[in-house]
């Protein structure tokens, strides 16, 4: 519970409560007392509550108003369906199962659709209850549209919410820091821990856990995917630059080839930042691509003094090339996100697979990718549909007079774990009991004095919506019980028994919600995050083995494995998305990664991302076959690593430690010059993955530098995360 009467959370809740109260009561009182239309009044009352409290749309006033306008046609359709299907209990229940799953599963599209799911379901819930009255459909729609219009006006004019800072602005600020860091690195500035800390902090600011939901580009469209990709690659740039300042510069730190590439990286970062701010055109990546190509062509050549390129020099050049690859990824992702580019020539196609498909295909890919029992989004949709269907069946079979309160309790109190559901319904039951007692006193004392209820409703609604969202389910249910009692007492004569009905209906809904929580995936995401991380590690183990073999074998042998490698990459990407979704829910359920001694799920996700990054970038190099001793080293090293990955997928106590076979200096020296950089890259890539296996076990090791761009926690989005290191 937030501390202090004027904490930001309390202030935001109070402002939203004012907007919803004005919108709801303006429509309710006008329809009821001026127009004598009680059905219109009910829908005018509940529409702002559904879209302003039950489903508060994230973002500023304009964003909220626009979202409400976009949602209203869906609300109309659900109201029509609910009114039509209320003809029998069976049809209403069947509709609830289908609509409950369909609407809930739309959360896969991102935080904005997910935020309106409860409100949209309420429109069907409200309309599908007896009496079956299709003749009142027009009145219901009038009330719905009036309530929606009033909410739009209040969102725009009455204490409008401040807009959320766009994610592109954060990326631009981070790219400015990266540009400055690249310039300093190009000038040979070495040991600078303070600069390293600032760069690392800029990278942390790009994590989605540090952003309000409205700013997180987690949608299924091209723009959201591109911005998320750009943010993750920007973090890689910052982290790679930070490591260059964490320790004294290596001996080859003044290599002119590295300096030229780093200066081009700085130029590219600055130009991309300007495009994100709208102060410049979207930059093409041709200049940086050419510089990278020139660098790749010469990085195996001797140093300026004519000496053979030593292993330290090769490793330094490999690290600089990794930074450039990350910057190139940022540029390409931004051109896709805001420049409308539908292709990424010169870049790994699989890395930018989302650039070419149309928006409908991207939306379809997001949904079909989650149509599996392993997806927590699918599990949540099934759980919600079953709970609401059961509640509608109970309410219809028992002919409850205010049966929609049962479904409303299931809708608002259900959680993704049995433990969280029990904690919530226990608090809600206590709050509803106290609220029913207060409402009973009000109804008993006021009797038929409608004016009393009309006066009490105003402060009761404001307090309920200002306090409930920040004080917990007990306060929310207790105060809302008082609100609905005061509202329904103005529609029809009521006695203190109305409060009793409210209490029984809420308890019935709590019982149904608790049973669903116990019977349908009671552990929530805890089991799925373990399973998802394990399947991801198993998938990337095969991908790493195939990629390494392709890099060191003869071209004919590598081409024979192209289909298998592409299939392994697709499987790894799919399993990464499933694991990311499970991890996101795991964090919202209060799950934490241990500081040591237990599995670190985020490290497993990063290991998978780094493995795929290498699979994207390393095969781009043009070189001949490696000599037999290099092939033998690569096979032995990757075999040790993939065996460790398979073992790590069981998450044994203490984790898994593995050290890939060291790349002998004589192997580098005996290899042809074009092959040497590739061997160094493979060595660094495998060592990165090996170090992350140790982190998965819970060791607090420093994150190593990957050889190529990638490796982030993008897609892992916890709506509330005050302690997580994840994005």
Task: Give the helices and strands, then pairings.
Layout lengths: L7 H27 L3 H17 L6 H25 L3 H17 L5 H17 L9 H21 L9 H20 L6 H12 L17 H24 L10 H22 L8 H13 L12 H28 L20 H11 L6 H22 L6 H10 L4 H29 L3 H22 L1 H19 L5 H23 L5 H28 L2 H6 L1 H27 L12 H17 L10 H21 L16 H6 L5 H21 L31
Structure notes:
The protein has 727 residues and is mostly helical. The protein has helices at 8-34, 38-54, 61-85, 89-105, 111-127, 137-157, 167-186, 193-204, 222-245, 256-277, 286-298, 311-338, 359-369, 376-397, 404-413, 418-446, 450-471, 473-491, 497-519, 525-552, 555-560, 562-588, 601-617, 628-648, 665-670, 676-696.
Q: Pairing-aware structural class of the strands and helices?
A: mainly alpha
**Extended strand count:** 0
- Fraction of residues in H or I helices: 55-70%
Strand content: under 5%
Identify the overall geometry.
elongated
Give the SSE string. HHHHHHHHHHHHHHHHHHHHHHHHHH
Question: Compute the gyration radius: what is it?
Answer: 29 Å
Oligomer: single chain
Largest beta-sheet details: none
The number of helical runs is 26
Mean pLDDT: 83
Distance between the termini: 23 Å
pLDDT < 50 runs, ≥5 residues: 593-597, 699-727
What's the short version?
The protein is mainly α and 727 residues long. It has 26 helices and no strands. α2 (38-54) packs antiparallel against α5 and α10 packs antiparallel against α11.
What keyword list fits this structure?
single chain, 69% helix, 0% strand, mainly alpha, disordered C terminus, 26 helices, 727 residues
């Amino acid at each position: 519970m937030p501390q202090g009467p004027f904490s930001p959370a309390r202030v935001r809740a109070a402002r939203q409560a004012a907007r919803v109260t004005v919108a709801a009561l303006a429509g309710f009182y006008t329809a009821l007392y001026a127009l004598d239309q009680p059905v219109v009044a009910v829908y005018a009352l509940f529409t702002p509550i559904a879209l302003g409290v039950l489903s508060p749309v994230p973002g500023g006033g304009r964003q909220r108003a626009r979202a409400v306008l976009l949602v209203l046609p869906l609300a109309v359709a659900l109201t029509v369906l609910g009114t039509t299907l209320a003809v029998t209990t069976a049809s209403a229940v069947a509709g609830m199962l289908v609509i409950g799953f369909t609407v809930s599963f739309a959360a896969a599209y991102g935080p904005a659709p997910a935020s309106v799911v409860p409100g949209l379901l309420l429109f069907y819930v409200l309309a599908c209850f007896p009496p079956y009255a299709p003749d009142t459909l027009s009145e219901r729609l009038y009330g719905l549209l009036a309530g929606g219009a009033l909410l739009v006006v209040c969102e725009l004019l009455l204490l409008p919410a401040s807009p959320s800072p766009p994610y592109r602005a954060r990326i631009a600020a981070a790219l400015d820091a990266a540009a400055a860091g690249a310039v300093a690195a190009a000038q040979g500035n070495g040991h600078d821990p303070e600069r390293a800390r600032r760069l690392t902090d800029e990278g942390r600011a790009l994590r989605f856990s540090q952003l309000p939901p409205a700013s997180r580009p987690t949608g299924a469209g091209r723009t959201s995917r591109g911005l998320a990709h750009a943010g993750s690659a920007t973090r890689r740039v910052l982290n790679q630059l930070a490591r260059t300042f964490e320790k004294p510069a290596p001996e080859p730190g003044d290599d002119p080839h590295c300096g030229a590439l780093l200066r081009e990286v700085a130029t590219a970062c600055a130009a991309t930042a300007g495009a994100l701010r709208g102060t410049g055109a979207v930059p093409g990546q041709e200049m940086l691509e050419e510089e990278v190509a020139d660098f790749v062509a010469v990085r195996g050549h001797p140093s300026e003094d004519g000496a053979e390129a030593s292993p330290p020099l090769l490793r330094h050049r490999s690290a600089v090339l990794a930074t450039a690859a990350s910057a190139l990824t940022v540029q390409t992702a931004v051109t896709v996100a805001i420049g409308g580019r539908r292709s990424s020539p010169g870049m790994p196609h699989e890395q930018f697979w989302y650039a070419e498909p149309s928006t409908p295909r991207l939306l379809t890919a997001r949904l079909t990718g989650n149509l599996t029992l392993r997806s927590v989004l699918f599990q949540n949709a099934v759980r919600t549909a079953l709970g609401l269907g059961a509640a509608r069946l109970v309410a219809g079979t028992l002919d409850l007079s205010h049966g929609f309160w049962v479904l409303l309790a299931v809708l608002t109190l259900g959680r993704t774990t049995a433990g969280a559901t029990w904690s919530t319904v226990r608090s809600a039951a206590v709050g509803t009991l106290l609220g029913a007692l207060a409402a009973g006193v009000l109804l008993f004392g006021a009797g038929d004095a409608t004016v009393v209820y009309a006066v009490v409703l105003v402060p009761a609604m404001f307090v309920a919506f200002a306090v409930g969202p920040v004080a917990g389910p007990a306060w929310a249910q207790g105060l809302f019980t008082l609100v609905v009692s005061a509202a329904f007492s103005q529609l029809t004569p009521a006695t203190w028994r109305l409060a009793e009905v409210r209490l029984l209906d809420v308890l019935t809904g709590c019982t149904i919600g608790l049973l669903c929580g116990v019977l349908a995936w009671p552990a929530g995401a805890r089991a799925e995050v373990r399973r998802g991380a394990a399947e991801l590690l198993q998938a990337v183990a095969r991908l790493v083995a195939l990629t390494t073999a392709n890099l060191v074998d003869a071209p004919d042998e590598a081409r024979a494995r192209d289909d298998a490698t592409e299939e392994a990459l697709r499987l790894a990407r799919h399993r990464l998305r499933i694991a990311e979704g499970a991890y996101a829910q795991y964090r919202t359920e209060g799950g934490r990664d241990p500081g040591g001694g237990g599995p670190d799920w985020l490290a497993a996700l990063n290991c998978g991302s780094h493995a795929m990054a290498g699979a994207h970038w390393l095969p781009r190099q043009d070189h001949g076959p490696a000599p037999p001793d290099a092939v033998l080293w690569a096979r032995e090293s990757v075999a040790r690593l993939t065996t460790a990955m398979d073992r790590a997928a069981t998450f044994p106590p203490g984790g898994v430690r593995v050290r890939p076979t060291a790349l002998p200096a004589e192997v580098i020296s005996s290899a042809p010059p074009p092959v040497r950089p590739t061997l160094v890259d493979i060595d660094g890539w495998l060592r990165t993955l090996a170090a992350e296996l140790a982190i998965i076990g819970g060791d607090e090791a420093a994150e190593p530098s990957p050889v190529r761009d990638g490796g982030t926690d993008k897609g892992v989005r916890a709506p509330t995360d005050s302690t997580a290191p994840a994005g």
